[in-house]
Design goal:
Blueprint: H1 11-23, H2 27-30, H3 36-43, H4 47-75, H5 77-94, H6 101-129, H7 134-163, H8 166-171, H9 174-191, H10 207-214, H11 218-246, H12 252-277, H13 284-303, H14 309-333, H15 338-370, H16 374-391, H17 399-402
């Protein structure tokens, strides 16, 4: 019957689809860093040119996220997800034949567009399908996302060493994208049926209108700022952690394994911290812990890089992964209905990824001016401390007040909060 959610798809299959989709969102980024010397030799890209392989996809993730709610409303979550996964797979596959740096950057752009649509649509889908289990399911999604990053960093140098081709190592990631596309095709048709309105959603705004309304509130901009500044650390580590330690004499496989270790720590924290934080409406203590771990990790890289590189990778990675997942949960916490909460999450990610995209370029510029990466790691240490201060403003007791509409903007009989 129209307007009634169809629940015949097993919940475990929907969860598998969420995890499979998340697994594909980072390997195309994390595979690049460990292969940086080979890519630079094969394409002639400079350090600033290499930064575009991370910067451009993240810029597109940011821009695309603003259009995600409208795209989901027009096409439906299923169609949007399937198209995005096809685009991601095509971008990875095209890397098999790239001849120069320009084409390689173009392939990264295709991947970034696909990921942008997924990241904009998935949180709203999770809130729709698992309204009482948002924190653990978003933790699963975030853990899969970070775990995929670990696979990209670990397997790509190995494949390159076995085949003698960095192009094949990058194109490899078209295969899991195809597998995720097939899984989503099976799991999402019924899972993404239009749900009946909930009591808090009796007159929901269309997602594009909700997004415009959300941008009028300072809390939206605060979430964007915190999410972007914090994720800039992840972008720089993905781009430069492996080249940093290769400059200290590490091999490509060894530096790739370090990035993979960082990503595994991210995945573990992304899964664990939201589950622990789910016991309380106030997530700030756990967010503060995650940000403190980022400060420690970046301080270690900047000041004592050779003392305990694996410890810095684990501590910093855990801080980044836990904070990423918790911010996704907190954005969804602010509003009760899936459409508005999904729109807020998309806006936070959109503005956030636009800011985060600049971080690898800033780190590269600091390296050019100082001759090393220590200044860049110190910059991210300061960023994590700043976000820690701003995070204290996220008091759940004020979520409703943050998005209350002024009386003049309400239609007769309309509730005060954005729906």
């Amino acid at each position: 019957m129209a307007g009634v959610a169809v629940r015949s798809t097993p919940r475990w299959l929907v969860l598998a689809a969420v995890a499979g989709i998340g697994l594909n969102l980072r390997p195309f980024l994390t595979a690049v860093g460990p292969l940086a010397p080979a890519i630079r030799a094969g394409t002639g890209l400079t350090y600033q040119g290499m930064a575009w392989l991370t910067l451009l996809p993240m810029l597109l993730m940011g821009v695309g996220a603003f259009f995600g709610p409208a795209l989901r409303a027009r096409l439906g979550a299923r169609t949007a997800m399937l198209g995005a996964l096809a685009l991601l797979g095509a971008g990875c596959a095209l890397r098999l034949g790239v001849a120069d740096g320009t084409l390689l950057i173009a392939s990264a752009a295709l991947c970034g567009l696909g990921v942008a649509v997924v990241q904009a649509a998935c949180p709203g889908l999770v809130k729709q399908e698992f309204p009482r289990r948002v924190a653990p399911v978003m933790g699963l999604y975030s853990a899969a996302l970070m775990g995929g990053g670990a696979l990209g960093a670990q397997l790509s140098p190995y494949v390159s060493a076995q085949t003698g081709s960095w192009r094949e190592a990058l194109a490899l990631w078209a295969l899991p994208a195809l597998a995720a596309l097939m899984l989503a095709w099976v799991a999402l048709p019924r899972a993404c049926a239009n749900p009946a309105p909930s009591p808090v959603e009796t007159a929901p705004a269309r997602p594009p209108r909700a997004a415009r309304a959300l941008l009028r509130h300072r809390r939206t901009w605060l979430l964007m700022l915190c999410f972007g500044v914090m994720n800039g650390g992840y972008a720089s580590l993905v781009a430069w952690l492996a080249p940093f330690y290769q400059g200290h004499g590490w091999s490509a496989p060894a530096s790739g394994a370090l990035v993979a270790l960082m990503a595994l720590a991210q995945a573990a924290a992304a899964l664990l911290l939201p589950a622990l934080a789910a016991r309380h409406a106030d997530r700030r203590a756990w967010m503060a812990l995650a940000l403190a771990m980022q400060v420690i990790g970046f301080a270690g890289l900047a000041l004592w890089p050779d003392a305990a590189p694996h410890a810095w990778a684990v501590i910093g990675g855990a801080g980044l992964g836990g904070c990423f997942a918790l911010y996704l949960v907190v954005a969804l916490d602010h509003l009760p209905d899936p459409h508005s909460a999904g729109a807020l999450s998309a806006l936070m990610q959109g503005g956030g990824f636009l800011l985060a995209a600049l971080a690898p370029w800033i780190t590269a510029m600091l390296r050019e001016h100082t001759g090393g990466f220590a200044a860049g790691w110190g910059y991210h240490m300061g960023c994590a401390a700043l976000v820690g201060v701003l995070t204290m403003r996220l008091d759940p007791a004020r979520y409703g007040a943050c998005y209350a509409m002024p009386p003049a903007a309400r239609a007769p009989g309309q509730a005060g909060a954005i729906q």
